């Protein structure tokens, strides 16, 4: 009932009916999503890159991945370049953020979104999505650190649970990909999720 009301409200706010497919959940697929940005402060952050890959059942669809470079208003410098490795010249031919977000929405469709601390990525993306759609990203969200917490809590309810990404890779015996690349991070989270699914926490 609540889900139907939420969808009705979202449809009423949707600026362009051409995007209504975003509200129809895909029954078999997810999209693992990651963004690189200029800041960890949502209000200040601009998109630098977007990585996304589809999952279907127990398969990660590497051939159906999306990687977009996004041109910020202020070019990255200093510490920011050291984190993600994207220099001014790497972004010279990058897409405007509005175009990148449109391509991302077309790629996602109604598929639920999967990520690690996904709330941050969604908050940054919604700065661009809301002016376009009239609503934020409407897809269901799956937080891989939350699934990992449930998995560890079931094993030992009283123990401290380390939710750092490196610990998830170590505990689930998944080789960690090179960090701070949006597509590599999206693929890594997809592998973590599949490992959790195999343990009954997908």
TrEMBL record:
Exonuclease domain mapped to chain residues: 29-202
Any one cellular-component term (Gene Ontology): cytosol
Coiled coil spans: none
UniProt record, GO biological process: DNA metabolic process
Source domain of life: Bacteria
InterPro entries: Ribonucl_H, RNaseH-like_sf, RNaseH_sf
GO molecular function terms listed in the Swiss-Prot or TrEMBL record: 3'-5' exonuclease activity; nucleic acid binding
Protein name per Swiss-Prot or TrEMBL: DNA polymerase III subunit epsilon
Organism from which the protein derives: Chromobacterium alticapitis
